[in-house]
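Propose amino acids for all 165 sites.
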């Protein structure tokens, strides 16, 4: 099944078995952590996104053995599809940030460097990735309402150096 996750329209476009395109609202999808046998005696986990009204669904992203990864990917897509928020600040979106009105305004207000990721040194990048993975592993995905009482905090408290201003 082919698909496109479209931030600008709030839709997921799926190419179904009838060889037709269907636009389904992202808000009607639910994310699931799906375990898939690998055929070698182990399992991999992937994010399944299922359209509640129709049951149409798709598997998203690379498989992995860690349960936190599909949950984090689901959070990523919820952030991505929320047009009231800037695009997730990841290297893949840096060349396109100026094309999204919300992101462009946010970057301007927070003095985000245009080449934030491209100019980052490898050691800083590795440290940020390690801190993000540590924070993700500690997040109570099954009981998110307990995150505050467990004193969970995102890596860097959700702020980059250019936001500290």
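Proposal:
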């Amino acid at each position: 099944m082919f698909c496109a996750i479209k931030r600008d329209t709030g839709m997921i476009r799926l190419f179904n078995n009838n060889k037709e395109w269907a636009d389904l609202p992202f808000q009607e999808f639910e994310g699931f952590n799906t375990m898939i046998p690998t055929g070698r005696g182990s399992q991999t986990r992937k994010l399944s996104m299922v359209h509640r009204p129709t049951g149409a669904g798709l598997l998203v992203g690379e498989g992995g053995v860690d349960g936190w990864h599909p949950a984090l990917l689901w959070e990523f897509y919820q952030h991505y599809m929320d047009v009231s928020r800037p695009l997730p600040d990841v290297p893949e979106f840096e060349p396109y940030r100026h094309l999204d009105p919300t992101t462009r305004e946010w970057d301007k207000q927070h003095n985000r460097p245009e080449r934030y990721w491209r100019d980052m040194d490898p050691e800083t990048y590795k440290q940020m990735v390690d801190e993000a993975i540590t924070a993700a592993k500690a997040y109570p995905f099954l009981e998110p309402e307990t995150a505050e009482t467990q004193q969970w905090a995102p890596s860097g408290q959700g702020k980059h150096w250019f936001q500290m201003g």
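The helical segments are 68-81, 101-109, 122-138. The chain is about 25% helix and 25% strand.
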